[in-house]
Write a structure and sequence with these properties.
With 225 residues, the chain is an alpha/beta fold. 37% of the residues lie in helices and 13% in strands. It is built from 6 helices and 14 strands. It has a 5-stranded parallel beta sheet with strand order 1-4-7-10-13. A 5-stranded parallel beta sheet has the order 3-6-9-12-14. The protein is elongated, with a radius of gyration of 25 Å.
C-alpha cells in the first residue's frame, strides 16, 4: 500500500523521526503525492478538467503544485514542500528527495506546443531548497543539486552542482578545470587551452627552480659565496 511505503520513507529519511501517525497525517508531501496519483489517473483517461480540479485542490491543501500530467516514481520524499512546482512533462524517478521552493519547470514560451518541456529526474536524486531545474534536461541518478541552484543543462549521474548557472563545486570529481564550463571536450575552448598551457609552464618553472636549489645545496661552500 503506497501510503505505508511513503510513511516508511518519511520515517527513514526525516531526522525528526516522526511517528507513524505523524508521518501519515502531518506531512504535506505524502498528501501531495497521493492526490497526484488520483489526478494523474484521471489525466491519463482523458478527464483533464477533473484532473486539474484535483490537482488544484491538492495545491490549496498542501502548498505543493504538481501538474496531473507529471510522472512520479515510488517513495518520493518531499520535505516541507511549500512552493514546490512540478511541470506537466516532468518525470521523477524512485527514491528522490525534494525540498521546498523547488521548480521543475520549462523554458519555452510557446503556447500549446507538444513535446517534452520539463526535466527528467532519475532515481535517488536530491534537490535542495529553492533550486530551479528548467527545460527538457536529465538529472542523472544519485546526483545532488544545491539550494538555490539554477540548472539548465544535463547533470551527470552521481554529480553535485551548485550556483547560478549550476556547476560542480571546485575540487569535485565531476569538475574538469581544463574545459570551460558548458563546453565539451569536442568543442573549441581557447580559455581552457590557455589555462592548460599556463599550468604546464608553471610546472616546468617549478621543476627548474627545484633543480637550481638542489645544485646550490650540493655545491661547495666556496662556490655558494
Amino acid at each position: 500500500m503506497e501510503i505505508i511505503e511513503l510513511a516508511r520513507t518519511i520515517r527513514a529519511r526525516d531526522p525528526a523521526r516522526p511517528t507513524w501517525v505523524e508521518a501519515i497525517t502531518c506531512y504535506a508531501g505524502l498528501h501531495a503525492v497521493l492526490m497526484h496519483r488520483v489526478a494523474h489517473a484521471l489525466y491519463r483517461i482523458g478527464l483533464r478538467a477533473l484532473a486539474r480540479a484535483v490537482s488544484h485542490t491538492g495545491r490549496f491543501i498542501t502548498g505543493i503544485e504538481i501538474h496531473p500530467g507529471a510522472r512520479i516514481g515510488r517513495r518520493l520524499f518531499i520535505d516541507h514542500g511549500m512552493g514546490l512546482v512540478v511541470g506537466e512533462t516532468a518525470e521523477i524517478g524512485d527514491d528522490v528527495l525534494i525540498y521546498h521552493g523547488v521548480t521543475l519547470g520549462g523554458l519555452t514560451l510557446g503556447v500549446g506546443k507538444p513535446g517534452k518541456r520539463h526535466p527528467t529526474v532519475e532515481d535517488g536524486v536530491a534537490i535542495g531548497a529553492g533550486a530551479q531545474v528548467l527545460g527538457p534536461i536529465t538529472v542523472g541518478a544519485e546526483a545532488r543539486i544545491g539550494a538555490n541552484a539554477v540548472v539548465t543543462r544535463d547533470v551527470p549521474a552521481g554529480c553535485t552542482v551548485v550556483g547560478n548557472p549550476a556547476r560542480p563545486p571546485a575540487g569535485s570529481p565531476c569538475a574538469d578545470p581544463s574545459v570551460g564550463y558548458g563546453l565539451s571536450r569536442t568543442e573549441d575552448d581557447p580559455v581552457g587551452d590557455q589555462i592548460a598551457n599556463l599550468r604546464a609552464e608553471v610546472a616546468a618553472l617549478r621543476a627548474e627552480l627545484a633543480a637550481l636549489k638542489r645544485e646550490r645545496e650540493t655545491a661547495p661552500a666556496t662556490e655558494r659565496v
